[in-house]
Structure formats: structure tokens, C-alpha cells
Design brief:
Belongs to the methyltransferase superfamily. UbiG/COQ3 family. InterPro entries: SAM-dependent_MTases_sf (IPR029063), UbiG_MeTrfase (IPR010233). The protein is an alpha/beta fold. It has a single domain, classed as Rossmann fold, CATH 3.40.50.150. An 8-stranded mixed beta sheet has the order 3-2-1-4-5-8-6-7. α2 crosses α3 and α5 packs parallel to α6. 42% of the residues are buried.
């Protein structure tokens, strides 16, 4: 069955143009490097150790999270539709001699047709707000996880506070991100994400907020989900 490509060419081009900067911890992707230990620790806190497990990273970009999970002993497949970031991810993994890590240029919907129920853990971080049909991505992620397995999402809430902090503050004032990284209309409320998650056969288990402290220039995990948030969902065991 042919699947309509759920991707925005402008968004793919945006991240492809910055691909060479992906692994610069002081560059445009500095926030991803800063939050990576937090989100990795939270994933293992909720789902348990990743060692020996089959993991899928959807919208992996240059591989920051995918590589970190492979270093924890998981067998990781990272997928993305932007070719240049994938090339950067493959090269970095090769240079660092990271085992158990593979990358593919394939949509999550297509992969769901190929490998339904194949993964213990599926992650989809900072990606839903960049696609035309995020509900389709959620459904595909749910189809790909095994019974009893975990799916992790992270995205941006949609409200006046998130507009001020995530766009005006992060892109124009603090310059944490390049201007135009996000579009407010694509932000997703937690209630909306939950409405996509439950019909896909997943149960929402935990919601976590991710906040930035300008004075310390650090990110923290907590209960404030007004701007950035993460959601853990689980497929019912067979």
C-alpha cells in the first residue's frame, strides 16, 4: 500500500541546511545537546535500562539521542527523511565507533507497514511540531511498539506563554535557536496529543515538563508543562 509522505519540504530543507552543525555543542543545536542527558535519563527511569532492547528513534536528525541510546547498549534504528542530517549521523557514529546503531531514510508510516510491533521502545522527540499530520506519526509509533513497550514523545505546548518563551524568547531574545525554527500554529497541547495517543492503543503514563533557566543557562525536568513537555505512553501487554 502506498503511503502519502507526511513531511514538509521546507522543514526538511531547514534542518538539512544546518546539518553540518549538528554535533557542535555550542552551535545551533546546543539546546539538544543540553537536554539530551535529561531526556535519556528520564526514558530509562520510566522504561528501565535500554541495554539489549530494540529501540526506534523517529525523526532522529543528526543522531544525538539515537547515538546516546546505542551507547547505553540498545540496538537502535534512527529514521529521518532529511538526507543531510542522516549522513552526518552515520559519519559521527562511524568516527566514534558506536555499535548497535543503524540509520534509514524512511517515513515512520512506511516503517510501520514493514515492522509493526518490532520495538521495545520508540522515541519521537522534538519532531511532531514539524510535520503536517502529527496524529499520523503518533499512530505509526504506536503500531511499531511491542505489546508492553513504551513510546516517548516530546513537543511544545500551544498557549501565549509558549509563544513568548519558545519563539520570542528562544529565537529572538536569547538566540538559543535559529529564527524560524518553530511555527506557533504547529504547537500541540498535551490534551491534543493524548487524544491521538489513546485511540492508537497507548495509555498515557507520565507527563513531564522541560524548563529553561536563563540565569543558569540550564534545562530542568519538572511539573511545568506550559512550554516544552514530554509524554510517556505504553502499549497494553498482550
Amino acid at each position: 500500500m502506498e503511503t502519502k509522505l507526511n513531511a514538509d519540504p521546507a522543514e526538511l530543507a531547514k534542518f538539512s541546511d544546518l546539518a553540518h552543525r549538528w554535533w557542535d555543542p555550542e552551535g545551533e543545536f546546543r539546546p539538544l545537546h543540553q537536554i539530551n542527558p535529561l531526556r535519556l535519563g528520564w526514558i530509562e527511569e520510566v522504561a528501565g535500562p535500554l541495554r539489549g532492547r530494540e529501540v526506534l528513534d523517529v525523526g532522529c536528525g543528526g543522531g544525538i539521542l539515537a547515538e546516546a541510546m546505542a551507547r547505553r547498549g540498545a540496538r537502535v534504528l534512527g529514521i529521518d527523511l532529511a538526507d543531510k542530517p542522516l549522513k552526518v549521523a552515520r559519519l559521527h557514529a562511524l568516527e566514534q565507533q558506536v555499535a548497535g546503531l543503524e540509520y534509514r531514510a524512511v517515513s515512520v508510516e512506511q516503517l510501520a507497514q514493514e515492522r509493526a510491533g518490532a520495538f521495545d521502545v520508540v522515541t519521537c522527540m522534538e519532531m511532531l511540531e514539524h510535520v503536517p499530520d502529527p496524529a499520523s506519526v503518533v499512530a505509526a509509533c504506536a503500531a511499531l511498539v511491542k505489546p508492553g513497550g513504551w513510546v516517548f514523545f516530546s513537543t511544545l505546548n500551544r498557549n501565549p506563554k509558549s509563544f513568548l518563551l519558545a519563539i520570542v524568547g528562544a529565537e529572538y531574545v536569547l538566540r538559543l535557536l535559529p529564527r524560524g525554527t518553530h511555527e506557533y500554529r504547529r504547537f500541540i497541547r498535551p490534551s491534543e496529543l493524548a487524544r491521538w495517543v489513546r485511540p492508537a492503543g497507548l495509555e498515557v503514563v507520565q507527563l513531564k515538563g522541560l524548563s529553561y533557566q536563563p540565569l543558569t543557562r540550564r534545562f530542568t525536568l519538572g511539573s511545568d508543562t506550559d512550554v516544552n513537555y514530554l509524554m510517556a505512553a505504553r502499549r497494553e501487554a498482550a
